[in-house]
Design brief:
Distance between the termini: 11 Å
Number of strands: 8
Oligomer: single chain
Shape: globular
Helix content: 40-55%
Structural class: alpha/beta
CATH superfamily: Aldolase class I
Mean pLDDT: 97
Bound molecules: 2-phosphoglycolic acid
CATH topology: TIM Barrel
CATH architecture: Alpha-Beta Barrel
Number of helices: 12
Order of helices and strands: EHEHEHEHHEHHHEHHEHEH
Largest sheet: 8 strands, parallel, barrel
Strand order of the largest sheet: 1-2-3-4-5-6-7-8
Radius of gyration: 17 Å
C-alpha cells in the first residue's frame, strides 16, 4: 500500500516570518492526520527557520532544488550536505527549473543520485508542454523524461523516489488535467515506464503525485483515482487553511479507495 504524499511547493513566495507563522498554524492539525504524509517545499532561505518551527511534527520539509556537489566554488548553489539535518526531501527537475534555469534530464539524473546518496527523499518532476500534448507526444516525452531521470539508479533506490507528474499546461493556469487523464498518464505512462525499468513490484511501490492547479475544489476527485498517490501543489498550498484542507481531503479520498 502506497501512503499518499501531499506536498506544497511554495516556489518563490513567503518571507521568514510568513513561513514560520504558516508552520505554526498547520503543525497541530496536520500532526493529528492519519493516512497521508504532508510536506512543505520552500526556498532555501526558509528551510532552517521552518525546520525549527516544525520540530516535533511529522511534516516533511523539502528544498525546491539543490546542486549535486557536496561543496565547492559554485556561487549561489545549495548542496545536499547543507540540507542534511534541515530538510528531508527535495524537488528535482521542476518544469520551471527546466524552463528558466536550463535543467535537463542529465542534470536531473545527477541531482537525483546526489539526493539519494545523502538520504534526501527526491520528488522528481516530469510533464509535457501544451504543444507536446496537442501534438500527441505526451507518452513518448514523459516516458523519456523518466528514463533520463532514472538512468543508473537501482531498483532499491527507485522504490524510495517520489515522482510528480505535472503537465506544464496545467501549472498555475487553473486548468488541471481531468482526473481520468491524470490517472491514465500516471498509470499507463509513468508507472508503466518504471515497470519496464524495474519490474511491476518496484513500480507499484513508487509514489506518483499529480501536480498542476490542484485546489480544494478538485483535490478529492483527483485523489480518488487509484494511480494518483498525492499531489504537488503550488498556489493552493500557500494559505494554512487551504493546505490543511488539501491534506485532509487526500487522506479521506484514499481511505475510501
Ligand atoms: P500550481 O503549481 O499548483 O500552482 O499549478 C504546481 C507546481 O508547479 O508544482
Amino acid at each position: 500500500m502506497r501512503t499518499p504524499f501531499l506536498a506544497g511547493n511554495w516556489k518563490m513566495f513567503k518571507t521568514v516570518s510568513e513561513a514560520v507563522a504558516f508552520a505554526e498554524a498547520v503543525k497541530g492539525p496536520l500532526s493529528m492526520l492519519k493516512g497521508v504524509e504532508c510536506g512543505i517545499c520552500a526556498s532555501a532561505v526558509l528551510l532552517h527557520p521552518l525546520s525549527l518551527a516544525l520540530k516535533g511534527s511529522s511534516i516533511h520539509l523539502g528544498a525546491q532544488n539543490m546542486y549535486w556537489e557536496k561543496e565547492g566554488a559554485f556561487t549561489g548553489e545549495t548542496s545536499p550536505v547543507m540540507l542534511g539535518g534541515i530538510a528531508d526531501c527535495v524537488i528535482i527537475g521542476h518544469s520551471e527549473r527546466r524552463q528558466y534555469f536550463g535543467e535537463t534530464d542529465e542534470t536531473v539524473n545527477r541531482k537525483l543520485k546526489a539526493a539519494l546518496a545523502h538520504s534526501l527523499m527526491p520528488i522528481v518532476c516530469v510533464g509535457e508542454s501544451l504543444a507536446q500534448n496537442q501534438a500527441g507526444e505526451t507518452e513518448a516525452f514523459v516516458s523519456g523524461q523518466i528514463k533520463g531521470a532514472f538512468a543508473d539508479i537501482s531498483a532499491e533506490q527507485a522504490a524510495g523516489i517520489v515522482v510528480a507528474y505535472e503537465p506544464i499546461w496545467a501549472i498555475g493556469t487553473g486548468l488541471a488535467a481531468t482526473s481520468e487523464d491524470a490517472n491514465r498518464i500516471i498509470g499507463q505512462v509513468v508507472r508503466a515506464t518504471l515497470a519496464g525499468l524495474y519490474g511491476k513490484d518496484v513500480a507499484g511501490q513508487i509514489r506518483i503525485q499529480y501536480g498542476g492547479s490542484v485546489n480544494t475544489g478538485n483535490v478529492a476527485e483527483l485523489m480518488s483515482q487509484p494511480e494518483i498517490d498525492g499531489g504537488l501543489v503550488g498556489g493552493a498550498s500557500l494559505k494554512p487553511e487551504g493546505f490543511i484542507a488539501l491534506c485532509e481531503a487526500t487522506a479521506q479520498a484514499k481511505s475510501k479507495g
